[in-house]
């Protein structure tokens, strides 16, 4: 692929827009959002649950959370719909379809 200066945009774009466009062009938006969700897990659920979370990963639009505490696991299961709604509002509808506690 060769560089063609005539293909460049003339106006300057904010960095955030440029990064979003780059992710879109390379079809990495979904993976970036998944990584952002995993990174922001402690922010979403709070310190108590985050401190008892051993691992978080996403597979086939399911969020898997491994917890070290039985009562916290039960609490997550009871509030699953609230957590999914919070994820939908922050990261967009349909990114995560289910939450599985391990």
From TrEMBL:
Pfam families registered for this protein in UniProt: DciA
Domain of life: Bacteria
UniProt-recorded name of the protein: DUF721 domain-containing protein
Organism of origin: Algoriphagus zhangzhouensis
């Amino acid at each position: 692929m060769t560089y063609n200066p005539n293909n460049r945009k003339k106006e300057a774009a904010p960095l955030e827009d440029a990064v979003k466009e780059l992710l879109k062009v390379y079809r990495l938006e979904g993976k970036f959002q998944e990584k952002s969700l995993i990174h922001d897990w402690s922010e979403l659920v709070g310190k108590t649950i985050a401190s008892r979370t051993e691992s978080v990963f996403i597979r086939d639009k399911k969020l898997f959370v491994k917890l070290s505490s039985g009562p916290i696991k039960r609490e997550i299961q009871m509030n699953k719909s609230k957590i999914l709604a919070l994820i939908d509002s922050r990261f967009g509808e349909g990114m995560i379809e289910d939450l599985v506690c391990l």
